[in-house]
Amino acid sequence: MTIAQLIYASTTSTDPRPSVEEILKTSRVRNKQSQLTGFLCFRNDMFLQVLEGASSAVSAQYARIANDRRHSKVELVGYEKVGKRRFSRWSMGYLADRGDMQSILFSYSGQNEFDPYGMDYRTAIEFMSEVANVGERAGD
């Protein structure tokens, strides 16, 4: 069986401002039920998220996100069928905005600003994998 892997970028809606903790709580429950895994980065009011699982489940979750009033400017960064999950340890992993992300950001974008809209699929998946490894070492 192949796994669908989808990465999207979005910006927080302005009113009311979403709670990342609430989004994570809801996502983790829904993702477990749908057998989805993934990882979320949030910085400067922007999200970069990877979802993995059965194509139908990934597509359904992306449609919910695209229609969620807490997200704006939802943009598909990439979608690919892969042989195995990269983020299998998390129903929705998350690394809070911390200083140790600066060097990772710089290595992937040449700048210290988080711009998920400027990433292509390959850059985004490698960036998310490295961020997830940092989070795992930090106990997040």
- Approximately how much helix is present in the residues? 25-40%
Low-confidence stretches: none
**How much beta, percentage-wise?**
25-35%
The H/E string reads: EHEEHEEHH
Q: What's the overall average pLDDT, rounded?
A: 82
- Kindly provide the name of the CATH class: Alpha Beta
Please identify the structural class as seen in this structure: alpha+beta
Shape: globular
| Total helical elements | 4
CATH topology: Alpha-Beta Plaits
Task: Write up what this structure looks like.
- There is one protein chain.
- By secondary structure, the chain is an alpha+beta fold.
- It has a single domain, classed as Alpha-Beta Plaits (2-Layer Sandwich).
- The chain has four helices and five strands.
- Strands 4-1-3-2-5 form a five-stranded mixed beta sheet, with helices on both faces.
- The radius of gyration is 14 Å and the shape is globular.
Quick structural summary:
The protein has 140 residues and is of the alpha+beta class. It contains four helices and five strands; from the N terminus they run βαββαββαα. The protein is 39% helix and 29% strand.
Layout of helices and strands, plus pairs?
Layout (H helix, E strand, L loop, with lengths): L2 E10 L7 H15 L2 E7 L2 E8 L1 H12 L4 E12 L10 E3 L5 H9 L11 H18 L2
Parallel strand pairs: 2-5
Antiparallel strand pairs: 1-3, 1-4, 2-3
Helix pairs in contact: 3-4
